Amino acid sequence: MASDVDTAPLVGRADLVKSVRSALLDDVAQGHTAAVFLTGESGVGKTRLLREVGAHLRDAGALVLTGSCLDIGDASPLHPLLQALRRFDAELSTSHTRTSSAVRALLQMFAEETAGPDGAGALLERVSRGLHLIAEGRPLVLILDDLQWVDRSTRQLLLYLLAGLGDLQLSVLAAVRAESLQGAHPLRRVLTELRRLRTVQVLDLAPLDRAATEQLATAVVGGTLPAEAAEQVWQRSGGNPFVIEELARDLRDGRDGLSDTLREIFLARVDALPQHAHTVVHAVAAGVEPVEHWLLARVVRLPEQELIEAVRAAVAHRLLVGADDGYRLRHRLVAEVLEHELLPAERSALHRRYAEALTSAEAELHQARLAHHWRLAGEPARALPAAVAAAQEAERLHGYAEAHRHWSAALQLADAPAVGPRTVDRTDLLRQAAEAAHHCGEHARALALLEELAGAGGMSTCALHIRRARYLAAAGRSALAEEEYRRALEADDCTPRERATAAAHLAELLLHLGRYADAGRRAREALELAAAEDGSVSEVVLASAALGFSEAYLEDPDAGLAVMRRALEIAERAGRPDDVACAYLHLAELLTGPLNILEEGVVVARRGAERVAELGLGRTYETRLLAIATNGLFRVGQWAEAEKVVAAALRHRPSGADAVELLLARCRLSVGYGDIEAADRDLDSVATVLAGGGARHVIPLLTLRAGLAMWQGRHDLARQAVQRGLTESRSDDVAILAALVWHGLRAEAEAHASRTVEVDRTAVRRLRDVAQRVARKSEKAARPVRNVVDGFLALCDAEVSRLDDNDPELWARSVAEWDRRNHPYPAAYSRLRQAEALLARRARVATAGKLLRESYRMAQVLGAVPLTSEIRTLATRARVALDEREQSRGGRDVTPVVGDELATLTAREREVLAAVAEGLTNKEIGQRLFISERTIGVHVSHIFDKLQVRTRVQASAIYLRNRRG
Amino acid sequence: MTEPVWGPVHRDIVDLLADHPADVPAVVDHLTKLQDMLVRLPPLLDSCPLADFNKLYLTITTTVLDGLYDDRFVDPVFLSRLDVEFAARYFDALRLWTDSSPGTPKAWSCLFERMRGPDARPLPSAAAGVNAHINFDLPFALVTTFDHLESEPVDGTDQHRDYLEINNIFAEKIPGLRRGYLERWQLLIDMVNGDIDDWYQGELVEYTRDVAWRNAQKIWRCRHDPAAHECERGRLDSTAAALGRLLLSPLGAFLQ
C-alpha cells in the first residue's frame, strides 16, 4: 500500500541524484566497491533521496536491497540486512524462482548459523557468497536508512564488503541523521576515516535554497504563491523540505498553521486526528517498526473495517505510512511527540498487548521484541526468559555487543522485586554477561560483572583470578593481569591443570612485556606442570612458544628452536587441531621473526598451512601461516612466489586483522613492482577495514603509502604520511618506527635530489631526533630486534648524508647490513645509492659500475620495476653498461628517436642539450652526468657550433621542437 | 541576499572547512590557516573574539604536536586520535554556524555571536572558547576516541595519564588563567546556575578537564542508549553555554 499523499516532487536535488547514481553505478569499475553516505538533519529529505536513487539504480539494472536500522537499543545483529533480504524475497515474483531460492538460501543460512571459533569471520564470508549468488552478476546496491542506529555486526559487514574482501561488486548508499553524529557516535570516526578514500563520498545534504524552496512550495500549492507567502515559507522553514511541504499544504488548504518546526507540525496534526486514528498512531509508536497489520489489529482491537478506516485517516494526516511489510510512523519524531501524550499506564497496557500478541505468534526479531515489550509492560518475570533467548540468539550470530546488552537487561530484570529469587540462576547470568562483555571489548564492564560474580560466590578463587587476568590482559592492563596470574598460582584451590594454564599465560604475558628471562622461567614452570598433567597440550604449546621466543631473544636460538619443535611433536601426537595449528604458527613466527632463518621459516609456514587445511582450520590458521610465508618470501626476494601464496591465502576471504595483514603483504609486493593502481587499491582496502576501529597496522600502512608516493615522485605526500605515522606510533615498537623514519628521510633526500619539492628542514631535524631515539632504545632491545633496527638506521644515516655530501661509505655500510641479513631489496637499493655517491665524486668509477650491475641484477630478479628504472637512468647518465650485451656495444646510448636537426650531435651532447633545455646550469648538468663543469662547457660550445645558435634558449628551442616531432 | 556569515573571508573559510583533517599535523595546519582568516575579519581586525580563542588553541595544539614528536606521551595513538577528534568538533561547530544551522551547539554560538560586537575582551573570549571546547566538546571526543580504539576510559591508565599531561600544557600556555585569576574565576563560577558542584574548586582548566573526564565516563556508560545520550548532550551544552554567556557578559570583563 503505497502512500497516495506523497506526491510532492523532488526539488533541488536533481544534480545530487545524478552524481550519486554515477558514484554508485556508472563510475564503479568492474569488481570494485563504492559508497555514498548522506548526512543531514531531520526532514531534509534523506529517505526520499534514498528512494529516488534506489529507483534510478534499479532501472539501470542494479539489484537493490533496502533496509533500515532500528532505534530500539536491543536490536539484533545484522538486522538491517536480514530485513532487506526478507523484503526482497517478498517483492520477487515467481518468475524469478532462481534468484528467490538464492535469497531463501541466504536467509536459511542465518537461521542455521551457530556460534563457533572464528564464526564471525566465516559468517561474513558466507554472507558475501550468498549476496554474490543473489546478484547473479548484476551490480549490487545496498541501501540503508537511519544508519545512526546500526548495530556493530552490520557495521563490520559493511566495512568488510566495502574493503573488497567479499570479492563482490557492491555499492552502499546510507543515510545518517546529522544530529546523531554530534554526540559520541561511533560512526563519526568511521566516516572521518572513510571520507579520505576515493571510492567513498560523504555528502552533507543541505536545506534547500530560496529558489528551490519557492519551487517546491509552488508545486505543492499548485499555483503561484503571493510574494509575501513565499517569503514567509522561506523564513519559517529555513529551507527544510519537509517543513516547506507542510507549510505549503496549510496555505493551499487555507489552514493557518502556526507551526514551523517538525515537532510542532506533528503535534498539531496529532491533535487533529479522529479518535480511532489516534489510537492506531499511538499503537504504532509503541511498536517496533514495521508493525505488521495482523499485529496492529490485535493491539488496537478494532473491528477490521474500523481499523482500516483509522489507518487511512492516519495516513491522510501524514503521520503514518504503510508498506507491504507493515506500518511505520512517517517520521521518528512523531514517536517523541507522542511519548508525552500517553499516561504511563496507557503505555504499559499497549506494550502488554504487543507482548501477548507476539507470544502467540512467531514474528521477525521475535525474542528481542518480546523482551522489549514485556519489560515496558512492567512484567520483568516474563521479559526475563525472552531477554535470555535474545542474548543467545545474538551470540549465535556472533553479535557479542548485542548479546551483552541483552544479558545486561536480563540481569536487571532478574533483580526486579517482582521476579522470584529462583526463576533463574543469577550467577549464570553474571558469567554469561561478563563473557559477552569481554568478547565485545567492554573490559571495564566485564571486570565489574566478574566482581559481582565473585561476591556471589559463583567461582573458585583460582578460576576467578585466571579469568580476571584474562580480562585485564585484554584491556591492556598488563601489570594488573600479571598480578592476577600470580595470585591464581598461589591460590589454595588451584587444580594442577589450572596451575599449568596460569603459568603458561603468565609466561606469554611476560614475553609481550619484554621480560624475556622472567618469561622463560615461567614457561619452564608451566612445562613441568603440564608434563605432569595429561591433556594439557594447549598449555605445552603456549609455554613452549614463550620459552622459544625468550631463548631466541636471550641469544640461545638453538635451544628455543628445539623447544618449539618438540611442542609441535607433542601437539601432533595428541592430535587436537587447534594445538597443532598454534604450534606451527609459533614455530614459523620464531623462524621468520627473531631468528631470521627465513627460508626454513617459509617452508615451515607453508607445510603448516597444508597441514592445518587438512585439519579443517583453513580459514583461520592457514591464512595466518600463509601471511607469514608471504612476508618471508618477500624479504628473501622471491616475490613471484610470494604473490602466489598471498593470492591463495586471500581465497579464504579473511576478515579483520588477518585480512589487513595479507593486504599489507600484497601491497608491499605491489609497491616493489611499482604497480601503483594495485597498491593504491590495497591501501584503501586496509584503511576501510581499519576505519572500523583498532590502531595496530596503521604505521605499516603509512610506511607503504610513503613508499608508493615516492615512486610517483610525490615526496610531499610521502612526507605527510610519515608525519602522521610519527605522531601516532608507540615508540616501543622500534623496528616498525625505524622503517618509517627511513621512509621519511628518504623522501627528503629524494626531494632534495629531484628538486621537485622543497626540503623540509624541520622534518629532517625531527626525523633525525626520532632515529636517535630509536637507536637509543634498540640498545636495550634483544639482539634480533637490534639487527633489524640497525639495518634501517644504516639507511637513515646514509639518506641524511645524501642531503649533504652523500658519503658512499655510509651506503656501503647499509649494503653490508642488508647483505648480512639476506634481504636483497634494500641491499640492491643501497648499492644503487652507493654507486650514485661514488659517481658524484668521480671516484672509483669501476666500483660504481660493478655496484650498479649487481644492483641491476638483483632488481631484475625481484621484478622491482621502479628500482630497475632508477638504476637504468643512473647507468645511462654515467654511461655504465648494465649487462654484457650492452657492454659489447660499448655503452652506446639508447636515446629515443630524435629529429634531423639533432642528427649531428653525439649521444653525450644530446644528453647535455636535454639538460640545458630543462634550464639546468653547467654546474648542475655536471653533477647530474658525473662530469666536470668545464667539460660541460666544452660540450655546450660544440652544441652551439653544430646547431648554429648563440644562446641556450635557441638551443633549447631546437631540442624541444625536434623531440616533439 | 543576506550578508555571508564570515563577511569577506566567507569563501575562504567555507573552503577550509570542506576538508576534514585526519591527523595532528593537519589539524595544526588547519588552525593556522583559520587564524590568518579570522584576523582579517572586520570590523575589529586583529581583535576578533574567536581569533583570541583560535590563537590559544593553535598554540596548545602545536605544543601537543611537538610533544608527540618528542615522545612526551605514553600512548601517542590515543592522544593523536583524541586531538583530531577534539578539533573536529570545533570545526563542526564552525561549519554549523557557517550554515546558520539551529543545530550549532549553544556552548559555541554564544561566542560566535560576539564576533561582530566590539565589547569582547581577549581573555574572556579565549576563556569562553576554552569553556565550550573543554566542557562540551571534550567528553564526546573522548568517548568517540575510546570507542574507535576499542578501549575505554579507566582511571589510572596510560591514556588517563596522557590526558592529564595536557593539563600541564594548558597550564604552561595560559598563564593568564592561572592562579592570579583564580579567585575571580571562582566568584564567577559560583554564580553559574546548574552544576555548581562541578565547578567548585581548583584551577579552571585542570578542574574542568577532570570534569570532562568524568563526564566522558558518564556518557560512555549510556552511549548505546540514544535517548539518554541525547539528554546528556543537552545537559552539557546548556551548562557550558551558561558559563560561556557569563564569561562574555560585562562580568567577564573584570577578569582582565
TrEMBL record, chain A:
InterPro entries: AAA+_ATPase (IPR003593), AAA_16 (IPR041664), P-loop_NTPase (IPR027417), Sig_transdc_resp-reg_C-effctor (IPR016032), Sigma_54_int_dom_ATP-bd_1 (IPR025662), TPR-like_helical_dom_sf (IPR011990), Tscrpt_reg_LuxR_C (IPR000792), WH-like_DNA-bd_sf (IPR036388). Residues 898-963 form the HTH luxR-type domain. Keywords: ATP-binding, Nucleotide-binding. GO terms for cellular component: cytoplasm. Transmembrane segments: none annotated. One of its GO terms (molecular function) is adenylate cyclase activity. Gene3D superfamilies: P-loop containing nucleotide triphosphate hydrolases, Tetratricopeptide repeat domain, Winged helix-like DNA-binding domain superfamily/Winged helix DNA-binding domain. GO terms for biological process: regulation of DNA-templated transcription. This is LuxR family transcriptional regulator.
UniProtKB/TrEMBL annotation, chain B:
It comes from the Bacteria. InterPro entries: DUF5995. This is Uncharacterized protein.
